[in-house]
Amino acid sequence: MAPSLKDELKKRGPFDSLEQEAMLAIMRTSDLLENRMARLLREHGLTLTQYNVLRILRGEGKPLPCLEVASRMIQVAPAITRVVDQLLGMELITKTQSQADRRVFEIELTQTAARLLKKLDRPVLDLHKVLLAGVSETDLAALVRILELARNSVGD
Hints:
Elements: H1 5-8, H2 18-42, H3 48-60, E1 64-65, H4 66-71, H5 80-89, E2 93-97, E3 105-109, H6 111-131, H7 137-154
Helix pairs in contact: 2-6
């Protein structure tokens, strides 16, 4: 049997509330999953944030304003400019000034980035499967629903 969160954290007493235990369980699980994902992406020279930007651009299929990309990120990226600069330096995106609004810069995937993402597609899906192999499809669907409820209760 897998160790409980209490055992993993070597917590002596009980949690203060079920909500506290749930929050800590979400945070601990997120950290473990993120670390495994980051390890895979590091092998390809990317961070989680950089990968997220590239995936957003590929999904849209056209140039997007930097702030639009930032608003779609899985994790809030307060320094989207820094991430964009990194990706520019790696020649994975291009950045152009918008013709409609010269204050806005749009970014777009390069062919190099498209090839890199294609190369990562299968390994990323395989990693998802491996990391969640112990969870049934029914439980995964329930988990998605429960996490959506939690996100909706957070608000802004």
